[in-house]
Write a structure and sequence with these properties.
Length: 389
């Protein structure tokens, strides 16, 4: 019965699950896997301090790397300021776990020359300052970190309840469902990566797949799997919609051989004949914001998304914060691309992306593509094992 679970057309898309799987495994995933190792895509600029604006005094972030800022009282929704029901035991910053920390082998100084070469997308908020870190993503894979308990739960709860409430009976408008599905799909992807690269034996430092966890958190909920596909196709649509912009973008890192490779891989991804033939419009964004309240709705959803992005500063585990920030920035970039349109529904000629946004977009697409592949490859055996128990 399970092989029947994900058949038919993916919601708001033009192709079915089987087509997405074969496109992903034969074409897109191999390209993306290579793309993220190129110098342009493997370094991400990020402020790793935990400037959590929502729960100012929970003692969660005592260490420098997750310190708390003092924000304007009226800047954030009241609901976030209520003290959480978190016991003092849980107030310990979870940074202490070695698997949760970020390897910063690459420091700012080593990177400086590269920054000067680059330019087209950097703006003031990208300016180097003492708080910015350049992280080699290849040295810091998204995987199990031990971050769990009330601190992690509180973030997901805030994301879902405050920003994209579950839609109970289809009464919510399409646009709000989209935001919910994007977040849920991202959440599925994070859980899949935790399960796919899990610390099975702490004492012996043995890492491997945890099929039980994959089943418990994602596979047993078909909606979560569907949302993962949805998010993947949404981001894929954004990337291909901005193809002309992304093709002409500057991928210079001062390493001509590598940079040529980056450009060539991008071209193969952006104008892929197999993708264009099998799934030309992976998500149909033209149907959104059509009604009278369109502009208002868009603003409201933008605000909610900004709140989600601010919540990433409250994640109490450095590596989770790194990937949380990157992926939310990637989603924000996809939203920006899809909804910066001119009257003809083409990408706005004035669309401007920062370098870091492009890096986030590429890496997010790769993470989602990996998750889709893992679900397809590991799903049936995980389900068999769990259902046999
Ligand atoms: P959680 O994953 O915390 O889920 C909480 C609740 O949300 C569930 O009980 C369920 O009701 C609902 N839910 C779960 N999945 C979905 C879905 N797909 N769609 C809709 N609703 C859902 N941990 C790591 O080990 N490595 C990481 O890299 C990492 N990154 C993180 C990044 C962020 C931004 C956050 C907030 C947390 C991260 N974590 C990471 C922690 C991890 O996501 C879990 O919170 C933690 O492992 C505890 O899991 P849980 O079983 O309590 O359920």
């Amino acid at each position: 019965a399970d092989s029947q679970k994900y058949t038919g057309i993916v919601e708001d898309c033009c192709c079915d699950y089987e087509t997405v799987d074969s496109l992903n495994e034969e074409v897109l995933n191999p390209l993306l896997q290579e793309l993220v190792t190129t110098p342009f895509f493997r370094y991400f600029k990020v402020k790793l301090w935990c400037d959590c604006p929502f729960w100012p005094d929970d003692g969660m972030c005592r260490l420098r790397d997750c310190s708390v800022c003092e924000c304007e009282e009226n800047e954030f929704p009241e609901i976030f300021k209520k003290p959480g029901r978190i016991s003092s035991q849980d107030l310990v910053c979870q940074e202490g776990k070695p698997q949760a920390t970020v390897d910063r082998t690459l420091d700012r100084k080593a990177f400086r020359g590269w920054v000067e070469i680059d330019n087209p997308w950097t703006s003031d908020d990208e300016t180097d300052n003492a708080e910015m870190t350049y992280v080699n993503l290849q040295l810091n894979p998204e995987r199990y970190t031990g971050y769990t308990g009330p601190s992690a739960r509180r973030i997901w709860d805030a994301i879902y309840t405050e920003n994209c409430p579950r839609y109970p009976s289809g009464e919510f408008c399409k646009e709000k469902k989209v935001l919910y599905k994007l977040i849920s799909g991202l959440h599925s992807s994070i859980s899949i990566h935790i399960a796919a690269d899990y610390l099975l034996d702490e004492a012996a430092n043995v890492w491997g797949k945890n099929l039980q966890l994959m089943y418990d958190r994602v596979l047993q909920y078909p909606d979560r799997v569907r949302n993962l596909y949805f998010t993947y196709l949404f981001v894929l649509r954004a990337v291909t919609k901005a193809a002309d912009y992304l093709e002409q973008a500057e991928y210079d890192t001062g390493n001509p051989t590598e940079d040529l490779k980056t450009k060539s891989l991008m071209k193969q991804l952006l104008y892929n004949p197999k993708l264009q033939a099998a799934c030309p419009i992976p998500f149909d964004e033209a149907k959104l914001w059509q009604g009278q309240s369109g502009p208002e709705l868009k603003q409201q959803i933008q605000k909610q998304f900004r709140n989600i992005s601010a919540l990433m500063d409250c994640v109490g585990c450095e590596k989770c914060r790194l990937w949380g920030k990157l992926q939310v920035l990637g989603l924000g970039t996809a939203l920006k691309i899809l909804f910066s349109v001119d009257g003809q529904d083409h990408v706005d000629q004035h669309l401007q992306l920062q370098r870091n946004e492009v890096i986030a977009l590429g890496n997010l697409l790769n993470r989602l593509s990996e998750s889709v592949k893992l679900v397809r490859q590991m799903g049936p055996s995980a389900e068999k094992i769990m259902e046999g128990q």
